Amino acid sequence: METISHGYGKDVNRWLPLLEIEGKKISSGVRMTFLEMIKCACGNDHTFVGIDTLARRTQQSVRTIQRHIAILKKIEVIDVVEEWVKGWKVKVYYFLKHKVIEEMLASKNNLSRKRGNPPEGDVLPDEHRGKQEFEADFEEKSAGEDLEQERQVGDNLSSILTNRENNGEPPINPPEVEAENSAEETKPKAVWERVCEVLDFEYCFVPQPILQSFTVGENGTVFTVEAPTDFFLHRVKNYRKEIEEEAIKHGFSGVSFGVQPKENLDRRIEEQEQKRRQLLALKQKQAVHKQQVERCGLEEKSVKEQFNCIWKIYPNKSGKWRAFLEFRKAKKQEGTPLVFDMIKLIEKARRTDSWQRENGRFVPSLHRWLNEKRWLDYE
What we know:
Helix content is 56%, strand content 10%. The chain is mainly alpha-helical.
């Protein structure tokens, strides 16, 4: 039984729609069930998720899930094996290497070959070969020439130093070698960026913002990874083998995992809370500015336009002419609120029980509301 190697989830959307059963494409429900099984596998080549869990996550019935599993087994995409897991006998679903996947991988290799990346074993001219192979051949061909150049440089350097001593000139101090701390600091970061690009973290429920909150570094020759919580540490440790291989490529001897100190989590929560408060204060400031602009804009309008703004939101539409005369009279009196404030008071009154009772039956006319200065009831 040959299972799918790690990384099958990256191209699953390319080869899954190509699967067929009895000459027909598999249904969308079968694809959805299989995708959910891949998510539950967390990067492994198998999963022992229960049928009830699949039914709940895909919002399908248990019998439908059973039928989908039978279809997937029939087309040789999965294999169902009963195994003992922590003292319980469960069904384990292994993801098999289907011929569609092999064809897709073969097509990808052919495409890479057309682009100038030949597979191992092919011999091409120097202009089409890899940089490392060309450099290796060049070093072998010019090894003797390099030795001769080094001898000449050494002789010239010794003669220059001797001449400076004879002429009484100060000796040449060797240049200070700058520490490559910047390169060493960015090496763990480069490893982690490469790991995030290659691996399928989206299939093990680790979103991109959480990945960015991971802390990476080095402890001697060991590549260290610290997760914000135990939950995300467990998810990422499913890719321990692949992360270790990538770290070894960059010169590390191994990988160690851990959880960030609680102080870091508290600090990050405090930073998020501070950002939230700043955003809230900014929104409040913008709202106040918007109200000031609206208030100034209403006061610049004519009396008729101001009255129309109030009449538009007032629920009782009786006696418009008398209401306009009363509004024009109230504008000349002291103590009358601005139009913007009057609109806010009317909106506040509309939410009261007396104005909402029996479909607004007891809402006074606007003429009466202005004449009796009813806005004082809601200030």
